[in-house]
Specification:
The chain is mainly alpha-helical. The chain has helices at about 1-10, 40-55.
């Protein structure tokens, strides 16, 4: 369902990323909860996305 919604989006600039070890609310959970808190991994995705579009 998530991939279907992503593909149906009319946005020209879009990225789909799954953060291992996170639940819907970015709390530690799921089958990879042993990875620790997911927020640092989320920040890496967000930082890379931002730097690609807004270089220093």
């Amino acid at each position: 369902m998530i991939v279907d919604s992503f593909e149906a989006s009319g946005a020209g600039d879009k990225t789909l990323a799954f953060i291992d070890g996170a639940d819907h609310f970015m709390r530690t959970g799921g089958t990879n909860s042993n990875l620790g808190g997911p927020r640092p991994r989320l920040m890496k995705v967000l930082t890379a996305w931002t730097q690609d579009r807004f270089p220093a």
